[in-house]
Design goal:
The chain has 130 residues and is mainly α. It contains five helices and two strands. The longest helix is centred in the last third of the chain and has 41 residues. One of its GO terms (molecular function) is DNA binding.
């Protein structure tokens, strides 16, 4: 498929796909005219790249990990990188859960205040008013 079609199917910009290619994360075959052509599997690969970026992985880590996912041909260095990134993601999950809990507390307090008509601290309007 061409780059525009991949962008549409994967829900990313053409610019993002070119960046992934520059970073060595995505490969395309080129026609004689220089047009990029991607395999059908590229959609899933782009989604995986996006997930890794969302989790905070660097391009170099993604580049090292991608070829080894689902493969038994892993070096000790790649295994160490996989474990390191897993530990980092686990810590992020703990931190996100803490943020969620703080938001839940804030929501509970705010909902109670809105229901009672109580004034927000340091404000002159009623909690929940715009």
């Amino acid at each position: 498929m061409r780059i525009g079609e991949l962008a549409a199917k994967a829900g990313v910009s053409v610019r993002a796909l070119r960046y992934y290619e520059e970073q060595g994360l995505l490969a395309a075959e080129r026609s004689a005219g220089g047009t990029r052509h991607y395999p059908d599997t590229a959609v899933d690969q782009v989604w995986m790249i996006q997930q890794f970026y969302s989790a905070g992985l660097a391009s170099r880590s993604i580049r090292a990990i991608l070829p080894h996912l689902g493969s038994d041909g892993v070096t000790p260095e790649v295994l160490a990188l996989l474990q390191e990134e897993r530990e980092r993601v686990d810590l992020m999950l703990v931190n996100l859960a803490d943020v969620r809990d703080r938001l839940d507390t804030g929501i509970a307090v705010a909902a109670k205040a809105v229901g009672s008509g109580k004034r927000c601290p340091a404000e002159t309007r009623t909690c929940g008013d715009s």
